[in-house]
Design a protein that fits this description.
Protein name: 3',5'-cyclic AMP phosphodiesterase CpdA
CATH class of the largest domain: Alpha Beta
CATH topology of the largest domain: Purple Acid Phosphatase, chain A, domain 2
Largest sheet: 7 strands, mixed
Low-confidence stretches: 1-49
Distance between the termini: 53 Å
Signal peptide: 1-22
Number of helices: 22
InterPro entries: Calcineurin-like_PHP, Metallo-depent_PP-like
GO molecular function: hydrolase activity
Keywords: Signal
CATH superfamily of the largest domain: Metallo-dependent phosphatases
Strand content: 5-15%
Length: 727
């Protein structure tokens, strides 16, 4: 995008990073700088390829052997002369993505896809940690290595690349790991701590967050710019003479200035503004121009890939028309997604409709992808999750409204691959006019359930989708010795903040990437999710009760209250700590009766287990840590998580799911807390009936491992005989 730059030095530095030549002669500091896309060289002639496309979403690449370009801190010296530029293990175990081991997972995924003969790879956003130069340059170098072997890469932007539409030179991280096992703050040079020369902070622009324009040019050869090897390349703004495509014409129209659109705080600008203002009844405000990086490419004859820029950065209260390129003037795109695309990027909806119609008319195999899902990604359990868990839990604000699925289906698009939530899942939707849309969620390489999707058209109306798990990743434990130092430091420190960051060292004993990510999610659940998502009394129960106790408690009928639990020790590990003090009723029974009631419930629970061909005592092996870990792993990985559980545990969960009363007694509340005058079983039965119903829904969703999509018959069918389900 052509814009005046306030300082000549900053302009030249930016152009140097972009590898773009422009006038930087004395006296031209206020002259707009024209960014010219670099000329592409054809990719090497590949071996015979199939039309299969590998979708690798949310790689979140961090260059673990990068270069901070700082004389103050280079990372952790390694035996082979490199420097490990990594984040702490604690940072990983409290994040919904790994930062370090996914570096090796990306290599493993590419090697696996290459060995399968796949030569076309799509990355639906968040291909880097936060679009820092060190990480962008690192992943680009890896993709170039595989390009030399005949692979082609096509990327879409995510909410981490870019984080903001314009460069953020104040960004950074607090938790890079030092050789002593401590945390090191590293910020970009515009950060206040750098401007005040804070001696505890390392300052380098290798950790700045790059904006759209810089990324579009740096990553141009991975789809953002035309390539002579492609049969077609266009953007929503392309205009080819007589409708005939040529590389030269595409290149001439690929620059940032040719790909601008107007956005306003209230909605879409440009040709859509007048209608929007009329509907709103007042003028739109904070209108400005941003870049859209959407493109359509035909890398293989007959295959169309539509990379959709679904990032929507809405101007906010800090937007300054006098300084429209300040990153602070826009809301982040993470919670916007397609909810805002249909209101603030209406030109994209028209363009998608055009592409879908042309693909149908010309017999093209169209695969569309963007960073964000186009419909409910919680197996239609979103409302239940809102009802059961804390407000805002599980990032339900990111679930698209029902209007999104209708709007996207109405364009005629039939297949969309999304990412963002790091989930493995599938959903479909048919609108009122019969338009059918399938949304495939490609899981992240940086979480439990790490995998990529392979999508292939079997014929014009049938699509095959396979999930390729990454259980085995060479070199995944390469950085573990550095974490040992961190763990030793935390164990030896008496500083309160360090004590709070102690983590279970046994994760370093894992023997595969699959085991590692499985335990990572157990620790993520313990250290973060249980506090962040689960109400106090639910957290206490989930972290205290094993499967046997849960099954018995589902059958318990007693008048002993939560307040009386202290007088009946040793029966079940619950307290009234999360309850509000209420007034005891005149009909209160003795606390000692709980023992008899518990025994009666045990008899009923044993009957349920026996009827299912199971032993009640075996349910005790379902520990609290295993249960809440399983729950969160199923949220993310769907049926892949059930495969890891195994048939025996799935059968135990099926018994628990069916064990609760049809209509549990309501919870008496005092304000937003349960009253301690509730009978012991009431909060558990009311709340965990919902928890297990959600777990069943998540684990019994539409096929998400290996399945086929029948576009004509409008259905998704399981193509695997190895899947498990809670049904």
């Amino acid at each position: 995008m052509t814009r005046p730059m306030p300082h000549r030095a900053a302009t030249c530095a930016a152009l140097s990073l972009l590898a773009v030549l422009a006038g930087c002669s004395p006296g031209d500091s206020d002259t707009p700088v024209a960014v010219t896309p670099p000329v592409q060289t054809p990719a090497p002639s590949p071996a015979p390829v199939s039309t299969a496309v590998a979708f690798m979403s949310d790689v979140h690449f961090q260059n673990v052997y990068g270069d901070f370009k700082s004389s103050q801190f280079a990372g952790i010296p390694t035996k082979d002369g490199k420097n490990a530029t990594i984040r702490t293990m604690y940072a990983q175990l409290t994040s919904t993505r790994l930062f370090n081991e996914n570096y090796f997972a990306f290599y493993a995924a590419l090697d696996d896809a290459y060995a399968k003969g796949i030569r076309v790879v799509a990355l639906p956003g968040d291909y880097t940690d936060d679009a820092q130069p060190m990480n962008v340059d690192g992943i680009a170098e890896i993709m170039k290595q595989y390009q030399a072997k005949g692979m082609r890469f096509f990327i879409a932007p995510g909410n981490h690349d870019p984080v903001e539409p314009f460069d953020d030179n104040e960004a950074g991280k607090n938790d890079f790991l030092t050789k002593d096992g401590k945390e090191q703050k590293i910020y970009a040079t515009g950060n206040p701590a750098c401007l005040t020369k804070d001696p505890t902070v390392i300052c380098t622009d290798q950790v700045m967050e790059q904006g759209t324009e810089r990324l579009m040019v740096k990553m141009g050869e991975f789809g953002f710019m035309p390539n002579k090897a492609d049969l077609l390349w266009e953007t929503p703004f392309s205009k080819y003479d007589a409708g005939k495509y040529t590389y030269d014409a595409a290149l001439a129209q690929s620059g940032s200035k040719s790909r601008e659109f107007e956005i306003c705080a209230e909605g879409s600008g440009g040709a859509y503004k007048a209608a929007g203002e009329a509907k709103l009844g007042k003028a739109f405000t904070k209108c400005t121009k941003l870049i859209d990086t959407t493109y359509l490419v035909e890398p293989v004859k007959g295959l169309w890939l539509l990379s959709i820029d679904a990032n929507v950065f809405v101007p906010n209260a800090k937007f300054d028309p006098a300084n429209p390129t300040s990153f602070k003037g826009f809301d982040g795109a993470g919670n916007a997604g397609w909810n805002k695309v249909i209101t603030h990027k209406m030109f994209l909806m028209d363009y998608i409709k055009s592409v879908a119609a042309r693909a149908k008319a010309e017999g093209k195999q169209l695969m569309a992808f963007s960073h964000y899902p186009t419909m409910d990604f919680y197996a239609n359990q979103t409302q239940a999750m809102k009802d059961v868990f804390k407000s805002g839990a599980f990032q339900t604000a990111r679930v698209p409204d029902a209007s999104v699925a209708n709007a996207v289906a109405a364009t005629g698009l039939r297949l969309h691959v999304g990412g963002h939530m790091h989930f493995n899942g599938t959903n479909d939707h048919t609108d009122g006019s019969g338009n059918y849309l399938v949304n495939v969620q490609s899981p992240s390489l940086a979480v439990y359930g790490a995998a990529y999707k392979v999508v292939t058209y079997k014929d014009a109306e049938t699509i095959d989708v396979q999930t390729m798990p990454l259980s085995t990743v060479p070199r995944f434990a390469e950085l573990f010795p550095h974490y040992v130092v961190e763990n030793d430091y935390l164990k030896g420190s008496s500083v309160t903040a360090d004590v709070a960051k102690r983590w279970d060292r046994s994760i370093l004993d894992t023997r595969s990437y699959g085991e590692f990510t499985h335990q990572y999610f157990g620790e993520l659940s313990r250290l973060r999710f249980m506090d962040e998502y689960w109400p106090c009394e639910m957290k206490e129960a989930a972290m205290a009760l094993n499967g046997k106790q849960m099954l018995i408690l589902s059958q318990l009928q007693t008048r002993v209250t939560l307040a009386q639990l202290k007088d009946a020790p040793g029966i079940l590990p619950l307290t009234a700590a999360c309850a509000a003090a209420g007034t005891p009723a005149n009909t209160t029974v003795a606390a000692s009766t709980l023992a008899t009631d518990w025994q009666d419930a045990t008899v009923r629970a044993d009957r349920l287990a026996t009827a299912a061909g199971l032993r009640l005592d075996d349910f005790a092996n379902l520990t609290p840590y295993a249960f809440y870990g399983d729950f969160h792993r199923t949220v993310y990985a769907g049926e892949l998580a059930l495969r890891d559980m195994g048939q025996a545990r799935v059968n135990q969960y099926k018994v628990l799911m069916a064990a609760f009363p049809a209509t549990p007694a309501p919870i008496m509340r005092i304000g937003d807390k349960p009253s301690d005058q509730n009978p012991v079983q009431v909060p558990f039965q009311q709340q965990f009936k919902g928890v297990f119903a959600i777990l069943k829904g998540l684990g019994s969703a539409k096929p998400s491992d290996h399945f086929t999509v029948d576009l004509k018959g409008k259905k998704v069918s399981n193509a695997s005989n190895n899947g498990l389900s809670f049904n």
